[in-house]
Amino acid sequence: MAAEAKMDPMAQFSISPIGGGELTGTPFQFTNSAMWMIVVLAVIIAFMWGGTKRQIVPGRWQAAVEGLFGFVGDIAKQGIGPEGRRYLPWIFTAFMFILASNWLSAMPVAVVPGVHPFAVTGQFSVTGVLSILSFAIVLAVGFWKHGLHFLSLFVPSGAPLPVKMFVAPIEFVSFLVRPFSLGLRPFVAMFAGHVLLEVFGNFVIQGLNAGSALGWGISALCFIFLIFVNALELLVGGIQAYVFALLTALYINDAVNLH
Amino acid sequence: MPQISQLALVYQSQWFWLVLTLAVIFFVVGRGILPKVEATIDARDAKIAADLDEAQRFQDEAEASEEAWRRQLNNARADAQAVTAKAKQKAQADLEKKLAKADKDVADKIAAAEAELDAARKAALTELEAVASEATQDIVVKLTGTKVSQAEARAAVAGALANA
Questions:
Q1: Domain-embedded: residue A2
Q2: How many domains does chain A have?
Q3: Which of A73, A212, B52, B85 has the most crowded Cβ, counting Cβ within 10 A?
Q4: A89: nearest CB among B30, B41, B47
Q5: Hey, CA dihedral for A163, A168, A173, A177, is it positive or negative?
Q6: Tens digits of per-residue pLDDT, A49-70?
Q7: Domain span at residue A105?
Q8: Alpha-carbon gap: B67 to the closest alpha carbon of chain A (Å)
Q9: Is residue A4 a part of any domain in this protein?
């Protein structure tokens, strides 16, 4: 157990191939990260399958799926307007992927020896792709609908010319920063939360191993704290999915409706 | 930080599996299941709206029939009141007519009786005069020994009676 005292809280984010071996840098290598993506996919499809019973009076499961549909649908409708329905598949996909990944990574699957939960959204290579996809939709829709007139998004309407000259570059830079902030937000939230969980989980074990009454007391305190952090982690996981969906809807709204 | 140190080795597999996963979610869930869920919700909303409309229609019908029933009731009540009032009026008129007739009968009888009474009184007075004049003749004869004629006696009696 003395070796574990030097455990690395970052180790939970390291990717390794399933079945051992070295990372090879090829696209098709099946890693623990890929496996958890497939688990996320399976959970999402299994959950959504419950919504296809098409009963007039829904059961609990169907009501949950319909509630979730209504929740994300409202984000799209309120953010974008009547045209929001067209962009709902992507917003819903991103929302569900982030939500399922965040929550699954906080599940206590490690009680099974040898299994470790892996936070897919704790990898900026994943959240970055999500935000780039959202941003690509914004750019595509904007230039498709408005042509070069889309660039007028950066110019505040109705302002005097000097103000326009001054504000337009700022708007442009803030527009360019959007994909980074959009992708970094869920990554940082998962990263920080899971490091905290790992560190305090380690304190619990170390306190127990110390064998003294003081160690047990510290261990108990850390365990209680850990419960709250875990609850917070679930909350943050939901909020990050919501924020990503909301911001994607708002950015698409800019592209659809300009001002 | 493994996210950075491993990036060069893992980004290809990360992107490949991520894009695969997102594509399956997008097409199976976003394009496949969501429209079904939406259709179910829309169908339920339409059903509820239709049911509410029907309930409203039934309620309107019930209110209309209640209104008609109330109107009928009011009409019947008004009819009954009219009949009652008419009957009362007729009875009143009959009564008055009968009363008037009875009054007239009574008045006639009273008049007849008074006439009879008058006649009887006159007859009695005439009788009295006759008796009184005879008595007067008798008294005069007994007191004075002179005889007075019946006419004189009668005149005297009439005068006394008139003075009395």
A1: no
A2: 1
A3: A73
A4: B30
A5: positive
A6: 988 888 888 889 999 999 999 9
A7: 16-257
A8: 36
A9: no
